[in-house]
Write a structure and sequence with these properties.
The protein is mainly α and about 300 residues long. It folds into 2 domains: about 180 residues, no CATH class; about 100 residues, no CATH class. It contains 12 helices and 7 strands. The protein has a 3-stranded antiparallel β-sheet with strand order 1-2-3. Strands 4-7 form a two-stranded antiparallel sheet. It has a two-stranded antiparallel sheet with strand order 5-6. α1 packs parallel to α7. It is globular and about 50 Å long. The two termini are about 35 Å apart.
Length: about 300
């Protein structure tokens, strides 16, 4: 049975990215700076649900604090309680059982982490409409982010690199708690001076329907594993020689997908990995396992964990 809030999860396209930058009147580094600080450029979990963060203090505000005593995990005067990743949906579902609309308005959604209560600013008639659209693609998520930025006239701060003013408007008055403005400045400098993410690689990732037939490449030990070039591992049911050296960390349960199918690709940190259950979401290198697993389509293999 499909998970609630899961959808096609189509990766970000170069066309949509270019349109976003043009609409905001900025260049690629400015847009990538915001995306990197918000989500490291990832709008979906491996199960193709939008990346979210549930804000319990917002839910409290939305519901007048009437659930504080019975459900403090999702209704509290102070921010916090974050579980991150897919477990944020556990918090969301708890809140949904109490008040669905308030719950959806209390989470930030997708690649730009647009708050549900900003759905109108993002261009939607209701929060339900925004959430439903967010499941479709990162293009849609980016467009919503652009809508919120323009609605608040925050694009003017992006254009002149006034990161403090942008942070105050987009992240909120408490932006300094997590050095949001400083992180924006650092990310922009990195992208302005170095290479940008290759969106053609991400568009080459197959969608969920193409992934269910394949298993992840999984290290056989829960301990830290370091496989030398030329070793054999199991890819689905097909043994394949590993042509490059790679490293799997115990912190990620020694599981990741590291195969590419028909090209040697260089990956920017922020490529989503793994076809779902048990696979790590890794912000380093890699791609989706696609096609018929074989030594031939394991052209390049390199995964490290920071």
């Amino acid at each position: 049975m499909a998970l609630e809030f899961s959808g096609p999860g189509v990766p970000l396209s170069a066309l949509a990215f270019a349109e976003a930058a043009e609409t905001l009147g900025v260049h690629a580094p400015e847009v990538w700076a915001v995306l990197t600080v918000e989500t490291r450029g990832l709008g979906f979990l491996p199960d193709r649900r939008p990346l979210i963060l549930f804000e319990r203090h917002v839910f409290r505000r939305e519901t007048g604090g009437r659930h504080d005593r019975t459900d403090p995990a999702v209704s509290d005067a102070e921010p916090g309680g974050y579980t991150e990743g897919p477990h944020e949906y556990d918090r969301l579902q708890q809140a949904v059982r109490l008040d669905r609309t308030a719950a959806l308005r209390s989470a930030s959604w997708g690649i730009g982490q647009v708050m549900g209560f900003n759905s109108t600013k993002a261009g939607y008639p209701t929060v339900d409409a925004m959430v439903a659209d967010m499941t479709r693609s990162e293009d849609v998520q980016l467009k919503a982010m652009v809508g919120e930025i323009r609605s608040g006239n925050l694009d003017r701060f992006l254009r002149v690199h006034d990161w403090t003013s942008f942070a105050r408007g987009y992240n909120g008055v408490n932006f300094a708690r997590n050095q949001y403005d400083a992180r924006l400045a650092a990310a922009h400098q990195r992208f302005a001076q170095g290479p940008l993410p290759d969106l053609t690689v991400r568009q080459g990732q197959p969608q969920q329907k193409d992934l269910v037939r394949h298993e992840a490449l999984v290290a056989q030990s829960a301990d830290e594993a370091d496989f030398a070039a030329g070793r054999t591992a199991q890819v689905g049911s097909v043994p394949a020689a590993l042509p490059q050296r790679f490293h799997v960390a115990a912190a990620h349960q020694a599981k990741t997908v590291v195969a590419v199918d028909h090209q040697i690709a260089k990956f920017h940190p922020a490529i989503l990995l793994g076809p779902g259950d048990g696979c790590a979401c890794v912000h380093s290198c890699g791609s989706w396992l696609h096609g018929n697993p074989s030594a031939e389509n394991l052209l390049e293999l390199f995964s490290t964990f920071g």
